[in-house]
Design a protein that fits this description.
By secondary structure, the chain is mainly alpha-helical. The chain contains 12 helices and no strands. InterPro entries: MetI-like (IPR000515), MetI-like_sf (IPR035906), Phosphate_PstC (IPR011864), Phosphate_Transport_Permease (IPR051124).
Length: 313
Amino acid sequence: MDPKSTASGLRSGRRYGDSIFSALSVSAGVVILLVLVGVTFFLLFGAKDALLADSSEVRGGNGLVAYVGPLIFGTLLSSIIALIIAVPLSIGIALFISHYAPRRLAAGLGYVVDLLAAVPSIIFGLWGMQIAQSAVPSFEFLNEYLGWIPLFSGSVTTTGRTMLMIGIVLAIMILPIMTAVNREVFLQTPRLHEEASLALGATRSEMIRQTVLPFGQSGIVSGAMLGLGRALGETMAVAIILSASGGGYSWELLTSNTPGTIAGDIALNFPESFGIERSTLFVSGLALFVVTFLVNMFARWIVSRRSEFSGAN
């Protein structure tokens, strides 16, 4: 057999395979864009009646801004609380698994974290509803000693179903996925960087601050955004804990004057809504879609600014 013809056939086969792979990749990208456009038009079509209706006809009777605004505020507030709690915990757990725990213990903990990420959200909601009452003494303690801070001021509700409880439950929900992402990113830190830091006299904690955390910054942001995306769209856990909200804008985390969230409000009210009221809920869904889209764009911008850092540098 002619070696030249054999080599030519191999090159032709590779080019054919590359063409197929390229076509499949482009098709997948186009499908994603089409789905995104389709969801946008679906929400706009469902929301058009409320967008064109008089403000008195909109659910609540005070217009779309008065109805959707507090829900957006409550959605962002609960998600930010969840991130504040979950981000440092996820980093600490991931560092323990990747750099401190013995190998067998680390493998077991990693497996448990992956399993927790698969727990349905309704389980967390039921757990939060059960412990809400027992959390009231802790809330009263915060109100007594930190009541001078607007977040912990006001009259503590006796039910325990507060914005702070929602934030805690959401933090526990998003903690596994954020920990899993951070763990994998920390394990990718170049061994050469770690050994060089230790060789220069750094302790393990100093080595982590000098090499692991800087290398994993973009991964930490990506994990946080994945968790934020789940927190923003969480439905059942919020609906179970916060079955009714006081509405309006309120920074008080321990009172019954709690703004609802978009996803929870839709889950609670959509089955009984018709006409303009249902269209108003579509407007809420459209607002959540836009907020999530903007948050992800902001996250991509942060990650792109960190992209110049590489393990090869």
